[in-house]
Amino acid sequence: MTYEIQLGGRTISYCWTKKPVKNLNLRIRRDGTVAVSSHPRISYGEIQAFLRQNEAFILRSLRRWESQQETVGVEFSLEHGGTFPLLGKHLRVELERRKEPPFGVLVTGDTLCLRAPSDDPETLRQIVRRWMGRRMEELMPRLCEEAALSLGTYGVTPPELQYRCMVSRWGSCCATTRTVTFNKFLLCAPMPCIEYVVYHELIHLIVPNHSPAFYRVLDEAMPDWKSRRETLSPYGSWIRQL
Questions:
Q1: I want to staple 88 with a disulfide (CB 3.0 to 4.6 A). Which of 190, 231, 232, 237 is the partner?
Q2: CATH code assigned to 83-239
Q3: Is the pTM of this model over 0.85?
Q4: Taken in order 117, 121, 122, 125, is the CA torsion positive or negative?
């Protein structure tokens, strides 16, 4: 059944399911609804108290879901008049068709000028991806050097860097070869989000897993990393469009 509760000054609807489970269970579904399940003997008052105890988690999860819906709602397109995200800013695409090189990308103010021989979608993607790779090569070494300096007490030095277009990961680290690979699509996200991914991957040179030790270092190096990760999350939708 569906019930309501006041959390953080807003009315939250939730679905409460009674079934033979040992513990109270809470999750935010993919459609943004709050779902809780409990043993039939658990009372309505106990459910309300349980939800209030988890108020911060519920509100944070709903804000993330709402942010994702807002970002996904912006239609991505490399066509003339379309939208392209760069460092968290949505730029208007202007397509300039040229018969001869140079082909490429020029950013001026709120406009991304895409110079291409045709409006073929795959041709446009390849031009943009090559441009993003060059921008990453300019940006990431500096960010990695700054992060390595900040993590210097752990003996971290700048790793070898690689750049790829990936659809499910923002970055990866191979501690044995000291190689970090960054997703070119990171260039779409705001700078604080990019910095978060840099620290995340470089800390894997210290702790090569996601154990509590890893998060202790991350908490110390970047106390606001969770909020940065939340801001980054919706940009994953852009990956699947480019």
A1: 190
A2: 3.30.2010.10
A3: no
A4: positive
